[in-house]
Hints:
The complex is a heterodimer.
Chain A: H1 4-9, H2 11-15, H3 21-33, H4 35-55, H5 63-71
Helix pairs in contact in A: 3-4
Chain B: H1 9-17, H2 24-43, H3 46-62, H4 73-92, H5 95-101, H6 122-125, H7 128-140, H8 144-155, H9 160-167, H10 171-193, H11 197-207
Helix pairs in contact in B: 2-3, 2-4, 2-8, 3-4, 4-9, 7-10, 8-9, 8-10, 9-10
Amino acid sequence: MMTCEEVLRELSNFLDEELIPEFRAQVQEHLRLCRNCTVLVNTTRKTLALVADLFVAELPHGVSERLIERLGIH
Amino acid sequence: MLNADKPSDEELVRLVQQGEKPVFATLVRRHERRVYWIIHGILENHADSEEVLQETFLKALQHIREFRGESRFSTWLVQIAVNEARMRRRKYRSGLYDSLDEERDPDSPFRPRELADWRPNPEEEFVREELSELIQRAIRSLPKNYREVFLLRDGEHLSSEEAANVLQISIPAVKTRLLRARLMMREFLAPHLKLRWHDRMLARIQRRGRSV
């Protein structure tokens, strides 16, 4: 059984789906039984989703237009 | 041949290299948001970020013939953006400031403290600008080295290898800093987004299977 520290160490790889299936299953088994690690995984995943939203957010007013103008390609 | 639905970045770059300069506008539209938010994450203020955004795309256009497709266009662009933003930052801040910005003991294990569950839909509770400001504040709270890795991996979605190339650090260093940055971001946001006290009590009672 994986410990909480081991899950913490593999958190990024787990979220990025970069763990080999055997490790992944071990993390999932731990999460089934550990509420703290489940919260940790879910809230970190949510953090990344919120950040992803920011990166496609509208630019401040006029930035896009001024950029095209500066490049002289309008 | 251009893919009629959505030409790839590399196809568009080839056209610009052949002299079709207006095609560059499509590349700008595709990448300006992510590139802006990366620069903003490094510089922390809007006016400088807008100027550096313009300088980044100007430089990319001027040097477009030097792009040989050895990396993705987005990685090449981000490399220019990070260099320009770092130069701008150095112009305004002394080296002393940068060294103080680093975390004191990066190798010590990070222990998450905020382990209460979050409210299910913060997007619905916050005004969009408020949530965006909160995320920006969280990004600003990261030490510089972690912040750059975080912006490239979780903002621009570069691979660990691509981020390592842009930042000239090793892949394991990218991975270590990314994990730490993600945990610090989560920790910063938790007090703002966690379940309120009465919801936590309710959830605890429900978990124990008691009727309310």
